[in-house]
Amino acid sequence: MAVAATLFAAGCSDRATDATPPAVTPAPAPVAAAPTPAPPAVAAAPAAPAPAPAPAAERQLPLSVQGVASAGLTVRVKGIELGPDATVLTVSASFASQLTNWTQMASGDTYLQDADGNKLMLKRVEDNRYLKIKNGDTMEGRLVFLGAVPPSAAQVKLVLNEGSPQDDPNSPGLTIDLPLKPAGS
Known about the structure:
CATH topology of the domain at 59-179: Immunoglobulin-like
Strand order of the largest sheet: 1-2-3-8
Radius of gyration: 34 Å
CATH class of the domain at 59-179: Mainly Beta
Helix content: under 10%
Low-confidence stretches: 1-34, 41-45
CATH architecture of the domain at 59-179: Sandwich
Shape: elongated
Number of helices: 1
């Protein structure tokens, strides 16, 4: 122990190297120690309560569902991520019209709705709050909806521009049913 302390102190010294090496005290010879008795037996403690169940794990489902509004908007849902705090759709949206140069997928309320009527609202992105698409363009991306879909849900409904007619060229209404369970299950 004394050797280690001396070497550590020498390594940290601010002084120039000393010509005389530090004195080293030899360590005492090891002495055999008496065996340590085993600790006394302790009564078994009662079992701890079961931990709380973990939140539902994230589930990813491939989808191939398409909706078309007569104003020229086509939305294809390619997948859904069902998480404990958010639900995410992977989508491809295209717009083609002779009536206008652009449309908006979310100028009105845009949400996912479960069978009980619960609405998971779209989390709007700052640089494109209304999901504007230029005529002739396709927008690929992920739409995030705030909240979790119940694990027992067989389907959800994607609602774009709630209350708008399908032929509104500036913000067409569109509803798409998204199955969450395989057909026949």
